[in-house]
Amino acid sequence: MSSKLPQTTLSLKQFLLRQEVLKLYREIFRTLRQIPDESTRSELKVWARADFRNNKHHTDESAIRSMLYYGRKSLTDLKKSLALSKS
């Protein structure tokens, strides 16, 4: 019988960092739903998925935190742009 648990167990710090990454990922996709232009929305979804997939191999905590900071900043900029386009 094979176990469904991952081969390596995450430390508490790694687990919490992973939760932050997943939260950012979900928030990005919720925000992308607000983009009115279908092709732009689709392009940004493909880009966001690829960006997360291309960086999932990182294990260095400071590198991940740096990427989270950049991701949150980009999300904030996107939200501001969407708010301006609605006004």
Automatic annotation (TrEMBL):
A Gene Ontology term for the protein's cellular component: mitochondrion
Main location: mitochondrion
Ranges for domain Complex 1 LYR protein: 19-75
Subcellular location field: Mitochondrion
Pfam families in the cross-refs: Complex1_LYR
UniProt protein name: LYR motif-containing protein 2
Role summary: Involved in efficient integration of the N-module into mitochondrial respiratory chain complex I.
Species for this entry: Parnassius mnemosyne (clouded apollo)
PANTHER family, per the entry: LYR MOTIF-CONTAINING PROTEIN 2
InterPro entries reported in the protein's UniProt record: Complex1_LYR_dom, Complex1_LYR_LYRM2
Taxonomy, superkingdom: Eukaryota
Signal peptide location: none
